[in-house]
Fold these 4 entries.
Entry 1:
Amino acid sequence: MTSHDTPEISGPVRTCIGCRRRAAKSELLRLVAGSVDGHPVVVPDPGGAATGRGAHLHPARECFDLAVRRKAFARALHVSLQGEASSAPVGAYLDSLPDDRHDKDRSTSS
């Protein structure tokens, strides 16, 4: 344990843009800025292979909702986004995940 009473995380560590908790990169969903009809949108990059600036989010609806409320997507990705529709692909991806995947990472980071 570190002096801040957080468990040691092995491997690369990233911060969730929703809850702002640090977690292993492998536990988080990578997000990148994409484009639909010439408008910037946030798209999930589960394989982590897309080029460009990325941001990370726990694959949980609570973290997604926090990120939307905090307008964290535009800030983290350094893009200008217009409204909630710009992060809709991420919400749709999270909705497509099995329910146990949504809660798995959050239960271990308390």
Entry 2:
Amino acid sequence: MLHQPWNGVQAYMPIYETSIKVLEEALALSTLGEWKRFEAACYLNLGCVFSCTGQHERSIDCLKEGLRISKEIGDRQGEGASLNNLGNVYLAIGQWDKSIEYGEKGLVCFRSLGNKFGETEAFNHLGSTYSAMGQYESSLDCFSKALEIGKEAGNKYNEARSYGGIGTVVCSLGNYESEENLKKSIEVFHAIGAERQEAFSYANLGVTYHALPVITKKSVKCQEKTLRIFRENGNKGDVQGPLAIASLGLLHAVEFQSCKRATDFFTESIQSHQNIRGTLEDELKLCLDDKLHSIRSQKMLCFLLVAQGKTEDALRARAGSRARRLDDHEVRHQRRGESRG
């Protein structure tokens, strides 16, 4: 499956563009030769790549066409993969009901085939959707089932995902002893060389530690490890990098009362965010802004600069924040106009 989290869209854009070109050429050949199974696979993978680049409508169109062909030729494996990926796209755009609907249909397909890998994927997807909806008990149930099946099938990647899902959900339920599951997630991702996912798990562990003031230093260590992994691997387009930097800024401002260090971190986070943002289409800009809460970082930076007597710098930072809000307002207004049209 080609599906990846969209967070690294800038770093991976050249790969995605090449993938789209190759897949479209392959699709043209498949329609000439009437190779239906191959045609469905092309649509499936195009849908995944379009999803990675934030082109969700095109992704849904491709995945639905792949689903139609798979049903037509009786390819249950292709049908299940298309259904599960449709669920992922609807999760990405916040249409929870459709995400659950397609995820459950994909699960039925995989179960009918005895496909443990697909079943684990489906349960992890459903766990993520229920978590996004705030239905933590249902989410925990899905992640637990995914973990059990993933272990049985020897699927290390999804096993690590399940550990991470359980850890974050348990934390959301107010039980901050979730660190063991997150540590297991880190351990498995590290063992299989999945460094980006390892970094995400470190970031989640840092959030858990931050909820416990007695071990704030552990939170700092986790966020620093997250940042180190992304810097070492050159993943400058990933959301998790500026998120980790902003988290370090908050920790130094609130817990350690270090205005200078906090200012440096917030400044770097905002700059990193702007570098990513400048490469994206409007739809992805809004999604990125929602993930990074960048305006909040701007406000924190202004506060810290004023506290250090750097009034002119604070005014410049505030002007940048205002310009960004106006830009976002214009994009949102334009999107509303397009949807009405």
Entry 3:
Amino acid sequence: MSSENKQAITAEEFDHKFSAGEDMTKHVDWSKAIKRVSLDLPVWAIKELDKEAERRGITRQSLIKTWIVDRLDAAKLAQQAV
């Protein structure tokens, strides 16, 4: 369901409905949900990531997220060009 189809309600209404046990899925935009993943990497790769993150002044997690999103965007563009 797209975010345009979501029924807007106040936070107070949301809390009340949630506490009453109502189905809240029609009020949640799941496209913004985050899922945590675990990633095993060799020590040398972690060290290189840390060096690059420090050089950029960001955290390792931010660097990894940025690189992954950049790569996914590039792959999507390449696929659209086909």
Entry 4:
Amino acid sequence: MISEDYSEFDTATYRVIQLLKKYPETRNSDKLLCELYYRYYENLEIPLSAVTTSYATLIRVRREIQTKNPVLGPTDEEVKQKREQKSKGFKEFFGGRHK
């Protein structure tokens, strides 16, 4: 069961990289990333109840990819700043709780 989880994660990682490269606007919009992922890889025009790869998995994968490969980061400076602010706030809020 664990290997299946990793397999899904690896497949999603590869697919998200392809979308981030081919459609730079997906670097700024998780909604667009998910819409294109589901359309091209799951042949869905989005009834989300039928989705097999979760929205959360795609977002985690996108975050990991963009952390390791800044060249695939947001193309919109405002999006980049908002994400950095959210990340900083999250770290400040939760960071102090685990000391």
